[in-house]
Amino acid sequence: MAHAAQVGLQDATSPIMEELITFHDYALMIIFLICFLVLYALFLTLTTKLTNTNISDAQEMETVWTILPAIILVLIALPSLRILYMTDEVNDPSLTIKSIGHQWYWTYEYTDYGGLIFNSYMLPPLFLEPGDLRLLDVDNRVVLPIEAPIRMMITSQDVLHSWAVPTLGLKTDAIPGRLNQTTFTATRPGVYYGQCSEICGANHSFMPIVLELIPLKIFEMGPVFTL
Predict the structure, then answer these.
(1) Residues 110, 197, 128, 210: is their CA dihedral positive or negative?
(2) Which domain holds residue 189?
(3) Could you report the per-residue pLDDT of 51-67, keeping only the tens digit for each?
(4) Same domain membership, residue 212 and residue 162
């Protein structure tokens, strides 16, 4: 999870998030290069006497500064489209979870476990135990296995919500009357936090998401849901 004064992104817990972090760093380097070149050109313009008459008719320069931005855009678009298609892939998921957004809590349904359904509310400050996180911990966590493709079916019962877990690279809108889906494969066990990322009313900031990821062998041993 994020911590105070954090500058970079959260550590990746899924292959998709690893790709997103790599693309973020790649695009950032291109932005730094563009800013450096623009500042260097401005510096030369302000400090150099423009006495060269060839500047008024420099077709080669105009060609370069027209083609170069197009090449840069292509170099950014190609890896971006690759990641976009990766996020939409659904390859034979091992488990399907349905998440329903409400004002202001989440309902989860394990469709592969006989329709196991439970609500997940934020823990009030009076119920927090030592080590719990204020405004982030919930009474019922979503327990999932690692190293197994998970499909999340996300919808809403009232207004627009957004199911987002940054460390997994997930952010999918929950829309009333529509069922959206996303997939992920976690690579490390642990407890990971997210929140509703769509302004959905007065208590929008009190809709945390908590995923408890455990090894697949332990998950297969039987129900370990924190109900």
Answers:
(1) positive
(2) 95-221
(3) 565 566 667 878 888 89
(4) yes
